[in-house]
Amino acid sequence: MKLEQNDEALLFSTTKIPDVFFSEYLTEASGDFIKVYLYILFLSKFNKDIKLNDLAKKLGLSFPIIQESLKFWENLGVITKKGTGFIVNNLQEIELHKLYKPNVSLSAEDIEKNEKNQTRARLVETINNSYFQGIMSPSWYADIDLWFKKYGFDEQVMMALFNYCFQRSALHRNYVQVVAEAWSKSNVKTFSDLENYYIRQENIQNIEKVIQKKLGIARPLTEYEKAYIQKWSGDFGYSLDIIEIALKKTTSKTTISFDYLDKIITDWHDRELKTTDDVQNFLVSIKTLNKNKKELEKKVKYNSFEQRTYDNFDNLYANSQN
Fold this sequence. Notes:
Elements: E1 3-5, H1 19-25, H2 31-44, H3 52-59, H4 63-75, E2 79-82, E3 85-88, H5 91-100, H6 108-116, H7 118-131, H8 138-151, H9 155-167, H10 173-185, H11 191-215, H12 223-235, H13 240-247, H14 258-270, H15 276-299, H16 304-310, H17 312-317
Parallel strand pairs: 1-3
Antiparallel strand pairs: 2-3
Helix pairs in contact: 2-4, 3-4, 7-9, 11-12
């Protein structure tokens, strides 16, 4: 693997790292990835050839880590694959290109309007001073403008977005984008929307804890199990009282299945059962149906139509007890 630098050779043996590396790339990369970048940056000054196996041995890293590191920096545009080697690109040129390339997401009218918005300008400056020690990279300004346009957040929500990510030691562009997407999908635009979102999320977390306790699950819930709970509480709007009715249906089962619970709760939602009374009345009607079916069995022989009607979905919640 040959390494080149697409900049003029340095006169003295000094490896220079532009400040933009610390403001734009450092927080997104793992320690091993940074280690690989710094070493290939050093080697690139001399147009050195080095095999990946030798690079792994030199840095004390595994071969897969070396491969992952190179792929990571390549995806960011920091290095460019060329034949059997890589070109180490100029980070300042990369950021300059990001800053001045045409932005099809924002019109000239929108940009001018944002520039004249003094409230927004003060907010961006507050973000700069509070979370970037006053040295926020210029590309963040463009990102913030884009997020205002894309998500329709008000200034308080944008400030809360940066504070949320900062408090979790994850103030890098990809994470901020993921959080912003999640808030937007939950229809968060104003600070009042955000407060309601936090209340819903806290409610869902409380439901998760209750379900874990009721089902005797000592381990943390998986992402798939949490997605089910989000569906029942967030999408369906079901309270814990309704979900607990479904939990009681697992008492006769030897293994706990969130899929089984989901079938029951989704069935209630499809039947437009909205309250605990709706659910309880429905279960009473099913219990009556099962009772009538047993009485009918004593008098007449099952026919194929009856078999198909009552045997689906675990005989429609077994006997619908409780």
